[in-house]
Design brief:
This protein is mostly helical. It has one domain. About 75% of the residues lie in helices and about 0% in strands. Helix 2 (about 30-50) packs antiparallel against helix 3. The longest helix is centred in the last third of the chain and has 30 residues, at about 55-85. It starts with a helix and ends with a helix. About 5% of the residues are buried.
């Protein structure tokens, strides 16, 4: 993500529109990872498994990774809500 965010920083310096997932102020790691998995990796793996069913374990791995990032996202949101309540 640091590479993406550095690109976004440079785009801002050059007064260019900031590319998808490159704005460090609006993009969080869990959201970026979940979006990447849902938008790119998941569909790719789905098609791949159609042709190579023996690789169905890839879907299991993807599901585990998505569950991990969903948990991280929920924890970050809970922490942010706690901070806002305490202000």
């Amino acid at each position: 993500m640091n590479e993406f965010w550095q690109q976004g920083d440079r785009e801002k310096e050059l007064n260019l529109p900031v590319s998808f997932l490159c704005d460090r102020k609006t993009t969080t790691l869990p959201n970026a990872q979940l979006g990447f998995m849902d938008g790119l990796v998941g569909p790719f793996i789905g098609v791949y498994i159609e042709f190579f069913p023996e690789l169905s374990f890839l879907k299991d791995n993807l599901d585990k990774n998505k569950a991990l990032y969903k948990k991280i996202k929920e924890e970050e949101e809970a922490k942010a809500n706690e901070t806002n309540i305490n202000l």
